[in-house]
Amino acid sequence: MFKITTKQIAELANVSRSTVSRVINNYENVPIETKKKVQKIIDEYGYTPNYFARTLAGKNPNIIGIFLADINTTFSSNDWIGINSPYNMELISVIVNLLKSYNHVALVNIITDIKELKNLEHYFLKRIVAGGIFAGFPYNISELEELARKYNIVLIDQMISNDGNDNLKLVNSDNNSGGYIATKYLIDKGHTNILHIAGDNRLSSIQRERGYKTAMKEFNLEPNIIYGMYREDIAYKITKNYVPIHKPSAIFAGNDIMAIGVIKALKELMFRIPEDISVMGFDNLNLTKWFNLDITTMSVSIKDIGENSVKLLFEEKDNYSICRANLIERSSVAEKMK
Amino acid sequence: MFKITTKQIAELANVSRSTVSRVINNYENVPIETKKKVQKIIDEYGYTPNYFARTLAGKNPNIIGIFLADINTTFSSNDWIGINSPYNMELISVIVNLLKSYNHVALVNIITDIKELKNLEHYFLKRIVAGGIFAGFPYNISELEELARKYNIVLIDQMISNDGNDNLKLVNSDNNSGGYIATKYLIDKGHTNILHIAGDNRLSSIQRERGYKTAMKEFNLEPNIIYGMYREDIAYKITKNYVPIHKPSAIFAGNDIMAIGVIKALKELMFRIPEDISVMGFDNLNLTKWFNLDITTMSVSIKDIGENSVKLLFEEKDNYSICRANLIERSSVAEKMK
DNA sequence: CTGAAAGCGCTTACAG
DNA sequence: CTGAAAGCGCTTACAG
Predict the structure, then answer these.
(1) Can you tell me the distance from the alpha carbon of A295 to that of A280, in angstroms, rounded to the nearest whole number?
(2) What's the angle, vertex CA B148, arms to CA B309 and CA B172, rounded to 5?
(3) CB-based contact (8 Å) between B244 and chain A?
(4) DSSP 8-state symbol, A296
(5) What is the CA radius of gyration of chain B?
(6) Among B66, B84, B286, whose Cβ lies nearest the Cβ of A90?
(7) What are the DSSP calls for B270-335, one per residue?
(8) Chain B nearest C-alpha distance from A319 (Å)
(9) Using a CB-CB distance cutoff of 8 angstroms, which residues of chain A are in contact with residue B107?
(10) What is the pTM of this model?
(11) What does the alpha-carbon distance between residue A146 and residue B45 come to, in Å, rounded to a whole number?
């Protein structure tokens, strides 16, 4: 393998560089004979076109930017794992692999300060990337929204009202219906006194909470909500304080990490799960199984999110996609005892 | 922000494009006056050079390729998290952030089949990337070694004997001394009957095992090794079967995931940790703390690995770096009772 | 110190 | 169907 250009391929094949280019780009108007002859030389020498030259000459770049926020807006604790969550890695992995089938590669950027957004425009303006996928950003960032309206950008879990007549591309998790399904499931099992330990002011949390409220209201049950900040230790404390007094028969934790704290506390309080009290999580963290914590939970497939993002990037027809959360029935929820 | 080129900057500043280029690239031979004048226009219009043009014209690309293997060589189980481990995300995060300070960005590739390595050369040959970092690959892949000898590539945890006179760039974890330190620590606590649950045939495992053996030998203790395949469930079974019969006073698990299985089994066997039996892990997984598992363990800082990789990529002087594992004292190890 | 010109390796109207 | 030529937006010897 060495450096070889269209010029040399052209000479070897006795055609012009134009024709070589046509073969490379699979244009219609070149006879099968010529095509074969040129392709043979290309294969023989293992020629691949120079990426920078073809992009400069006007071809679309085959790079997609993945922009992940690592901005600690909500927490200040040591529990903040931010960017290092397995979630992000799975997302990258899904996207990168899918991009392969579109002959694209991924440029990964990690944004630690919202101000950096201003310097990102050149990636799109100068066509360094053909498109972008943004994930993990706080809400109501006008710079982000502006960028997304101008270029080929997909926003993941960035709930902007999409009125349909703009070209914003959005991929969202359906946390709302997820919260509803989780709560309804508990109600169907006969539970009426259900505590919801919600997360914080992030939209995912607000929506899960809304789903909970909708379901409770539907069945004329009184909602009880306490905020656990998506933290294991806070959920633990809440459980310790709340449960002995109010005796709920089920707890719906806003995420699995809090469910872990809930379970820890319940065990210390000598409650059996699910016989004495049912626990519902959200997220389907795969690490819970390592600990024999068979938590019934809600799962939004990251694969779905990644796949929908890539599709939206390349396909014109849609510009919005919502990924439903599915109930994962395990053994932390049971029928309420009479 | 709109499309603007050197040509227009040149006109606006009343100089030639050559001079504009000299200012952009911070060349010496341009008087401060001219420099200021040109820079002002550049700032005013928010001009940034076209990346493809400057690379095509001979400038080094400012992209570094990160190539992560997602090749399931050892396992076939559902426990295989492969690429999705938090380890990889932390590595990417460290590298990307460090790259920023060198004005470089990261192109992330995930290799699912070793054959793909053959098609990777064009990244380097065509200078799409200025260098590469490879992690997670199996050993003795000749294609990888060949590539690494030809281009600016850093291999992470890819133990090739580096005889010093070639230009292979290697960053390794010191699993050997890590295994030794862990074992020595147990011995210093008075333990003599120490079981080592090793991983598999990966080098990290072999080296941790070697460190264990060295320490045991040094103190004339008999080594006992069983292979747990780095899996939680297997370590669990081993503990269940082995401990009641052979009554070790300490178990050194080859990684934290196995230590979790060990602890689960010990609890079921009604052993107290660390009063009855001490448990030592390896890796310092941050998730263990969520479960009140205060495992004493060994930690190789991923930050070190990432930082050393980036340094090796950009600096000429060194071509080898080894990252030591540090003892993280927590509460799963105690003095042996007399 | 500075500009005109060549060149990097492609693609694509244009003309035939 | 195919080639000559212009152009993408830079950088860099070269000459002055």
Answers:
(1) 7
(2) 40
(3) no
(4) B
(5) 26
(6) B84
(7) T--TTTT-EEE-SS--GGGGGGT---BEEEE-HHHHHHHHHHHHH-SS--EEEE-EEEE--SS--P
(8) 25
(9) 63, 105-108
(10) 0.83
(11) 19
Which uninterrupted H or E stretch holds B20? Answer: helix B17-24
Candidates B118, B262, B140, B153; CA nearest to B201 is B140
Local structure of residue B295 (DSSP, 8 states): -
Interface probe for A, chosen from B287, B293, B294 (most Cβ of A below 10 Å), is B287
Say if residue A65 is exposed, middle or buried (CB neighbours under 10 Å; 0-12, 13-18, 19+). buried
Residues facing residue B311 across a β-bridge: none
Question: How many C-beta neighbours within 10 Å does residue A240 have?
Answer: 16
How far, in Å, CA of B312 to CA of B166, rounded?
A: 14
Q: Does A108 contact B92 at a Cβ distance shorter than 8 Å?
A: yes
Dihedral of the alpha carbons of A271, A272, A274, A275, in degrees to the nearest 10: -100
B68-111: pLDDT as tens digits: 987 654 443 444 445 556 677 788 888 999 999 999 999 999 98
Q: Position of tokens 């006179």?
A: B165
Nearest Cα residue to B56 out of B123, B153, B128? B128
Q: In whole angstroms, give the CA distance from residue A144 to residue A137.
A: 9
- The pair of three-digit structure tokens given for residue A107, joined into one six-digit string: 């440029």
Query: 10 Å Cβ neighbour count for B270?
Result: 7
For residue B232, give the nearest of A329, A139, A66, A293 by alpha carbon: A293
Does A226 lie at the interface with B, CB-CB under 8 angstroms? no
Question: Taking all residues of chain A, what is their mean pLDDT, rounded to a whole number?
Answer: 87
